[in-house]
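Changelog note: in this version the structure field was regenerated for every chain. One regenerated record is shown below for reference.
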Amino acid sequence: MAKKSSTARNASKKAMQKKAARKKALAKKGSGPSRDNSAFGFNGMDMSGMGMSGMGMPNFGSMGAGDMDSFFAQMEQANAWAQRQRELKAPRNKARFAQNAQANEGVNYFLVKVSYTKASSPVWRRLVISADAPVSVLHSEIQDAFDWDNDHMSCFCWDTACQDDFSVTVDNPWTFVPNPKVREVLREGAKIGYNYNFFHDMIHVIEVEKAMVEINDYDPNLQMEQGEPPEMPGTAILMPLPLGH
């Protein structure tokens, strides 16, 4: 095999030095994003230099090759950080799942009111969901009720501001990890959050109005919906899927 020319060796050396410098620069950026509710993991990261601010879409058209490398390196770093946070929260979430399941013994259905927080006027839907359905089914019911497209990642959160997630989509927009049963996350009188499309933080508040034994154990004259959802914000470019959670 012929030896590499001096020019080729120098080019290879420079490329390796550039890669090492980029890793070193990324390591100085800190321990991770300021929030952890996104499967993409770059909430709160400063990407203004690459045509992206906060959760906005990156302007790939104005990004050079170096910016692209930096963007995806930061996303990979943030994904790893977000995965670590979920691993740390897993024992607490598991205990909370068990507590809710115990409190819901004998409960077969929940009547929930799902409110979309980004509308200029009240937009909400009431849903009846089986206590034994996984949260992925609740996700599908919300998508259908609001006529969303189910083509972006989502998460369920213990809080209504969706800062503290407990179930997040991975690989595709309908596979949740973990995927606990509804009885493990809901309880009569409780409120949790649901965030769809992390680029636009389309947050919904899920309020549990009634825990029921029978599926029709609520007032049949109850209003089941109000308002029309606004047009879903456009997303020019679909981002690469998360690296894992």
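Spot check on this record: The domain at 106-226 is CATH 3.10.290.30 (Structural Genomics Hypothetical 15.5 Kd Protein In mrcA-pckA Intergenic Region; Chain A). Confidence is low (pLDDT under 50) at residues 1-5, 22-56, 236-245.
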